[in-house]
Amino acid sequence: MAQYIINNVKEDIPFEDCTDEVRRVIQNAKNLILTQLGEVPFDRLRGFDRALYNLPFEQFRAELPKEIDRVLIWEPRCKMVSATAEMLKTPKKGDIREDDVVITVVIDVIIE
User: How many domains does the chain divide into?
Assistant: First the structure.
């Protein structure tokens, strides 16, 4: 199984030597992380729960792997290895904005 790194930054994924199917899996996983919970009509459980941004940052980091694991249920050809978050700048008054945090996820792509 090959491991790939994706994040919540809205930019192209630098695909390396991989097949079209692996590219689709990686892109699907990233799209799921970028999708907001409740955004998909008739599938309100799909997507990342933005309510996590209301938590203190340490609690956000602790809850993140469970949330990423839940989000990636919709792409069965990949499995989360790890999920981390990094604060880009110090928030004002304790509020964490989505743009202030980079979420990095390492996934295994499982193609049978």
Answer: 1
- DSSP 3-state of 68: helix
**Residue 100 pLDDT level (bands cut at 50, 70, 90):** confident
Q: In this structure, are residues 83 and 104 in contact, taking their beta carbons and an 8 Å threshold?
A: yes
The DSSP 8-state label assigned to residue 91 in this structure reads P
CA distances from 38 to 4, 19, 28, 67 (A): 27, 31, 17, 14
Q: Which residues contact 25 (CB under 8 A, 6 or more apart)?
A: 75, 77, 78, 109, 111
Residue 48 DSSP code: B
Q: What's phi and psi for 10, nearest 5 deg? A: -80, 80
CATH number at residue 105: 3.10.450
pTM: 0.84
